[in-house]
C-alpha cells in the first residue's frame, strides 16, 4: 500500500478537523491529536478496513478470471 494513498484514506475517514492531524514523511505516517484518543480500537479498525480494501483490490482481477 502506498503511503500517500493511505494518508488520503485516513484524511477521508477521520472527520475531526483541527483536532487530529495527519502528517507523512516518506513511508511513515504520524497521526497526532490535541486531545487524548478516547478509543484506540477505532483507529485500529480504520487501519484494518484500509488493508482489507487494498487486499480486495489486489485480488479482484484473479477473482474475475476464476469465474470465467
TrEMBL record:
GO terms for biological process: cytoplasmic translation. GO terms for molecular function: RNA binding; structural constituent of ribosome. It holds the Pfam family Ribosomal_L22e. InterPro entries: Ribosomal_eL22 (IPR002671), Ribosomal_eL22_sf (IPR038526). It comes from the Eukaryota. Keywords: Cytoplasm, Ribonucleoprotein, Ribosomal protein. Its main location: cytoplasm. It is found in: Cytoplasm. GO terms for cellular component: cytoplasm; ribonucleoprotein complex; ribosome. The keyword Ribosomal protein applies. Component of the large ribosomal subunit. Component of the large ribosomal subunit. The ribosome is a large ribonucleoprotein complex responsible for the synthesis of proteins in the cell. Belongs to the eukaryotic ribosomal protein eL22 family. PANTHER family: 60S RIBOSOMAL PROTEIN L22, LARGE RIBOSOMAL SUBUNIT PROTEIN EL22. This is Large ribosomal subunit protein eL22.
